[in-house]
Each structure stands twice: as C-alpha cells, then as structure tokens.
Write a structure and sequence with these properties.
The chain is of the alpha+beta class and about 625 residues long. It contains 16 helices and 29 strands. Strand 15 and strand 16 form a beta hairpin.
Amino acid sequence: MEDTHMKFGYFDDANKEYVITSPKTPLPWINYLGSENFFSLISNTCGGYSFYKDAKLLRLTRYRYNNVPFDSNGHYYYIKEGDTIWNPGWMPTKTDLDAYECHHGMGYSTFRSSKNDLQAELTAFVPVGKNCEINQLTLTNNSKETKDFSVFSYVEFCLWNAMDDMTNFQRNFSTGEVEVHGSAIYHKTEYRERRNHYALYAVNAPVDGFDTDRDSFLGAYGENSAPEVVVSDQSKNSIASGWAPVGSHHLKVSLAPGESKTFVFILAYIENPVEEKWIGRAEDGKINRTRAETLMKEFDTKEKSEAALAELKKYWDELLSHFTVSSSEEKLDRMVNIWHQYQCMVTFNMSRSASYFESGIGRGMGFRDSCQDLLGFVHLIPDRARERILDIAATQFEDGSAYHQYQPLTKKGNSDIGSGFNDDPLWLIAGTAAYIKETGDYTILDEKTPYISVRRAWHVEGGEPVVNTLLKTPAAKRDVPIPKCLVACLKEEREKSESEYVISNSKGTVLTETQFVRVWKYITVRSTAERCYYTYVNGQSIKHRIKPRLGEHQPNNPKLVYTMDFQVTPHQLRHTYITNLIYASVDPKTVQYLAGHENSKVTMDIYAKVKYNKPAQLHGVINRAIDTSKKD
C-alpha cells in the first residue's frame, strides 16, 4: 500500500521502497548499498561514494563533505542530446526534468527520469557476495523520431586513504596512476609501491572515448555541472599521471522510436595475492587483470545484472521475514517489518562509521555503539552477531576497559577520541546476553579473545630496566624509516661522543642516508625469514622461495652467514637511537622534537629510566650481523 500524504515522496510497502518525487529535498536523502564488505552511500540525486570494508582506509571514490553546492560529488551519468545536458538524478547539472523519481529500496536505488521524450532508468546496487557496485542504465526513446545522443559516465577516484587524500596534497598530486584497456579503466595508484589492490570502472559495451584525468574532463577552471568534455561532446582519451584520477566513458547512442538500450557499469575493488600482482616482470608494471576480467564477465549482460538484482531482493525478503508483525496499524507494521530492521542492518554493517554526517574518517566502529546495535539485528544474523561480539571483545584491555572505537578493516582499536568510557564494557555484557537469549549458544562464553596489552618502551628484568623492543599493540606493526633530521643528529652525536651503540661506518662517522639503506639491506639479508627471488628465462618470470637456517652460509656469498632468527625493524633502530640521545644527556626537548613526539612529557614517560640502560642486546645482535670492519 502507498502512503501518499507526504511532501517529497511516499512509502511503497509492496516493493519495500521509499519513493522520492522531487530531487529538491531539504537535505540529501540517502540509501546504503551493500551487506558484506563493499559499500556505497547514494543520495536521491546520485551523490555519494564507495569503499571496501573501511570508509577511511580503503575508499574508492571521493566525496567532499560540507561542499558548495552540497552533495555535488557522486557517481554521475551525463546525457547530452543536442544542446541539452541532463542527469538521471538531476545533479550535478540541475537541469529541469520532465519527470523524476528516486526509489530507495532494500540495498538498491532506482532513478526514473525523462527529458524531451528520452527516458532514463538507472539502478544502483551491490550484488550479494561481490565487491562491486553495479549501475544498470536503460535508455528509452519515447518520441516518434530517431534520437542520437551521448552518454558520459563519471566517477572521481579517491587515493585510498580518505584522510591522507584530503590533506597530503604535496604528495598526492604526484601519485595518481591508471591503466585503460578497452572499456575498462583501472585505478592503480600506489599499486606498484605499497598496495596489492586496485579499483575497476568498466562498461559492457565498446566506448567512443574515455578520460581519466579530472582537469582534462572538466576543463581549465571547470566544474562537474558543465564538464568541458560533455559540453564539447568529445572525450580527450586522457591518461592521468598524478593530480586527480577519474573514470569517464563516452558512449554514442542511437535509438529508434520506442527502442531501448541497456548499459551495465561496474565499479569494483580488486585485490591480488602479493605473488600474483603482475603480468610478467614486476618492473614492466602491468597489473594482473585476471580477477577483474572474471568479475566483468559476471555482469556483462542486462540479464546477468537483473539476475543479480533479483538475488539481492530475495536476500532481503528472506532476512526481513525472520520477524514480522501484523496489526491493524499500517504504519506500525511498516516500521517494524521493513524500515527499522533495514536500519538495524545498516548500523550492523557500518555502525556510525560512514554517513552524510559522519565522514568515515574520524572514528571507525564504536565499541559502545556496536554493542547496542547487536540488540537490533541479533535475530536476523546470529552467526555474524557472534563474530561481531568476538571482534569487539578483542579490543579490550587486560583490566576490562576498552578503546571507544576501532577500525573495521583492521579490527584494531584506535584512541582518536580517547578511551576509558566507563559504560563501554558494560554494553558488551548486554549484547552478549542478548545473543545467548536469542541463540542459546553458551559456548561463546568459553571463547578466548586476545587482550591488548599497552606497554612502555622499557620494562624491568632482574631489577634492571631493559628497552622493550616488542610492539605496543599488533596494530602498531610498521616500519619507521629514520628521517633526515635523525640522520643529521646522529652524525652530530657521533662526532662528539664515543658511544659504541651508534651504528657507524668504517671511518667511525655516522651513516649517510644512502649508507643507511645499504647497511639496512646488509642487516636484513642475514635474517632467517623466508624470502623469494626471481629469475627470468625467455622473458618469463620464475619464482624461487628459500627458507634460510640459522648459522648457514649463503650459497652465492660464503662470507654471509644467517645470524638473526627474528625480523629487525627500523623502529627498533629508532628506539636505539633515542636511547643513546638520552644516555648522552641530550636535553629532553631536543629528543622530543627528533623523536616526533607531541611533547617532551611523552618522550620522558616512554624513556624515563633509559638513562641507566644500554640496549646491549639489540646492539649485540646488529653488530654480529654486520661486519663493521668492512667499508660501506
């Protein structure tokens, strides 16, 4: 039954949709697409963005919060017929439409609009079990004349880390990188250096042009309400190199009276195993597209796309059928049977980590919020509720307190807004009790989850302070290179100090950055960690894997002995360096600056007793690994 007594739309209970009848709503009214790992936010004017698992760390497309005009970045399709340019969702051209409807349904949104007897129907959804968003665009000629027009797609890629993407411009303007193969655009920024994933944006039809550089698409001082490429009806086939990578396809369409054509666009997250990143040699830089091409084949026809949409609707029908109410009050039934349960599933998927008011950058999943959310969805997905409880419990400390929030990708806590909220752990008890009442599964109480143990950089053994070289938390695992300022200070300290604990070259002076890189390789090659190397035969890359044993000599270099049975990190060298600064009585303020700490109190809290400690153990291991008598 339809409820038509509303200003901007109505509820369609039969189809489980809310139908918006005007694009000019007071604020953007959004829907959440996705139910597992890939998610998109989409407004009633096609604004929004997509991400994989974590809206901060793995964001595929850009969105500008607090932008003017508001909600002016999204996944757009421009239709140019003659001098008229319009969008199925009205934005960003804001051309007056002859007809407009947005249907926000369960995990999908459909836009139906028309201009000058050309009708467009765009359906956006995330298929069940797939890491992609599908946009199915059907165009119909309702006139009595043949229509010739162009369609331009457009997304703006985010450089993965959303916080870094919107702040670190001196670097980001140099890193954007793409590949184009046929109708598929591959956004591969940082794939060569540090990532094994890329974004795919493709269409199931031959294209008449493309663009991947934002400035080329928009034009000098251009804007997305009137892109230069669209206005001129001609793509530039631009290849982004730094600056702002985008994805745009150009399709020239001809429709006879009454004829329809459907195009299927796919925006996807593709991840390759590290050993399968490349086609051929890594230095050739050709990404492995096998998984992307397989995914594209799954949605390369209208029939396949519609089958995936039907599967999604079936998924939601079955999920919402677990608990239903039938009463004499229509609005109560609608609220309980459809929209409250749907909203509870959205909060399960994202907690409060991403919305049009939460940027997806600052907080991650809330500990307390996620526990409270359990009460609303445990009857729908008890198995995943159990998994969520264990994820939450794993962010607790030994004393029962907890991080107030954690990142959904890493499932590790963060203290961006602090911790120690008294009621956080209490809500875990309430959520677990609700799970047990719903399922009768008492075995969850026997599950052991790891506690986070935050430790200072030193501890006491045998009454003596010892530098702690272990990471404070698993989430802290990282390699920290020694910056230039530390190298400079090292050199200064070496010149005025006889300290035996500063790594030096054969002349007794500090290592330059180049020497440090060489010495670092000299250290790590002695590790017994398993490693790989490649040989090339007839242009083919052949992978070899070796697992050294402690005390063995390297076959190709008999002087090199595998002397380390653990992985040394630059972070450990950094601790060694700071220790020596304090031991040499460098003032705390200077040490704090060189260490990169917020204030000197942090530095002294960490290294309070280090003045009485020499990190002989680490120093000894490194000295044994390096023949310091050799020249660099």
